[in-house]
Amino acid sequence: xxxxxxxxxxxxxxxxxxxxxxxxxxxxxxxxxxxxxxxxxxxxxxxxxxxxxxxxxxxxxxxxxxxxxxxxxxxxxxxxxxxxxxxxxxxxxxxxxxxxxxxxxxxxxxxxxxxxxxxxxxxxxxxxxxxxxxxxxxxxxxxxxxxxxxxxxxxxxxxxxxxxxxxxxxxxxxxxxxxxxxxxxxxxxxxxxxxxxxxxxxxxxxxxxxxxxxxxxxxxxxxxxxxxxxxxxxxxxxxxxx
Length: 242
Fold this sequence. Notes:
The chain is of the alpha/beta class.
């Protein structure tokens, strides 16, 4: 039903307009990720699929107040380009597209915008530019990598192969990401080959472990969004020079 749909792309213009004009829509989530190599055993869409899984689950918990706005599947992945099949954007290209997406949702009427990141290579560029985005768009614009809601305590409780942040949590295609995939989209995990590579950590992953991580991530990401909507988490707009 359009009144409970959480994906922007599924709505007609009338359905979106009515929900926005009624005051029902309070926030949107813009997922960012990458399409890149994830060792020999995980599909290249992993970052995109995982961040969208979290975004949709959080929006469903807060429906009908939140929409997920998908628009950018590739990220900054030059460090993975030795592996053919990886897609990478130049940082300037990536930030230009992200800026246009933010501009689009702000012009549509959103005052609370959460950019939810699922790829570590995007982080530095976003952090370096965020104060400019805040000045430009003048809304409650937040940047959050979904694993940032997890702690060292979570790593020590749930990971077997290591507990360092960010080396083991989130790491790259190791125990954490493999467990997430086993829980949410096991069709993306090639378990037959995960031990045929130098890194043994993926083979420690289980679906049960991944679900435990996802439960915590979704709960905390939902709370983060709710605080934005309720005015308890507001991004400060940096001042302009006099």
